[in-house]
Specification:
This protein is mainly alpha-helical. The protein has 14 helices and no strands. It is elongated.
């Protein structure tokens, strides 16, 4: 009697159901669905939202401004009057934390947006035009990448008295090169796509092709880099201000608060602990959001295949 062999069942693919459903969803709904199933990303959004609300409305819960000095309460620990305590000059640490977080967020978001816009236009433009424009652009990018940008940032910021608007400008000028290099690399393949060639055949202008047909197709990369750029800018601004080259008094940022509290960690830990906690929460939230966006835009990621469960 001939024996029959029962075939083994196919291994269960945890992402098969998700991939079967993907063609039925629009791209935006699909990305949102993947992102919303990522618990870490949702936690990051919640943290960033709370920090944003704290920076905007936190000042309503105290009667002190960050510039007010209470000379009757110098270096006092947290209390019902001064929620986060006071510093050596009698300034309310809670009011400084609200303003410092607001200043750091404005700098970080502004620099990240400006950097992405500059990198997208330069990188995609160099890839599309090619030839001498491409060679010259890459030459400038490679030159700026080897320049000690942090030292130049410190010198310029210190010379201009730590104006936060100037800090935004110099951080943008020296922060776009790496992203532009990646965008250029990806755009070299996009310039050969059928929709770009069809636009050229129809007589569409070169810059219109770059802005309407190449850059929008890099949207996922730009969004992820925009989010992670906020983290990098927060760390850069904090480091510069901590070293005395960023935001200067009487203005306040998280970096200046860390610098003021670094010498009193043992005697007055609240001066360093509260701004340090805000920096950690801010960087953690944006890192989680950036990871969630990367997984949402990448259909091959493990998180996307498992429905965002970590």
């Amino acid at each position: 009697m001939a024996s029959t062999v029962t075939p083994l069942p196919e291994p269960l693919d945890p992402g098969a159901a998700n991939r079967a459903l993907e063609p039925r969803l629009g791209s935006r709904r699909l990305y949102l669905r993947r992102f919303s199933r990522n618990r870490g990303a949702l936690l990051g959004v919640a943290l960033f939202t709370l920090l944003g609300l704290f920076s905007v409305f936190g000042g309503l819960f105290t009667r002190f401004a960050y510039t007010d000095a209470d000379f009757a309460a110098l270096t006092q620990p947290p209390s019902a009057t001064h929620y986060f305590g006071t510093n050596q000059g009698g300034n309310d640490v809670y009011a400084e934390a609200v303003h410092g977080l607001q200043r750091s967020l404005v700098i970080a978001v502004s620099v990240s947006v400006l950097t992405i816009v500059l990198a997208a236009v330069i990188g995609a433009g160099a890839a599309y035009f090619g030839g001498r424009v491409e060679k010259l652009t890459l030459m400038v990018i490679h030159f700026l990448l080897v320049v000690p940008s942090f030292l130049i940032l410190a010198l310029i910021s210190h010379h201009l008295a730590g104006d936060w608007r100037v800090l935004i400008l110099v951080l943008t000028v020296f922060g776009w090169m790496s992203t532009a290099r990646v965008i250029w690399s990806l755009s070299t393949s996009l310039r050969e796509r059928d929709y770009v060639l069809a636009a050229e055949f129809m007589g569409v202008g070169s810059w219109r092709i770059v802005m309407r047909h190449i850059i929008p197709n890099l949207g996922s990369l730009l969004i992820v880099n925009l989010t992670l750029g906020v983290v990098a800018t927060v760390l850069s601004e904090t480091a510069l201000s901590f070293l005395g080259f960023g935001v200067q008094t009487p203005d306040v940022s998280l970096g200046t608060m860390l610098a003021d509290g670094s010498g009193t960690i043992t005697s007055a830990p609240w001066l360093f602990g509260y701004p340090a906690a805000l920096v950690v929460l801010l960087t953690l939230s944006m890192t989680l959001v950036g990871d969630g966006l990367r997984d949402a835009f990448d259909p091959t990621s493990t998180t996307a295949a498992l429905g965002g469960r970590r």
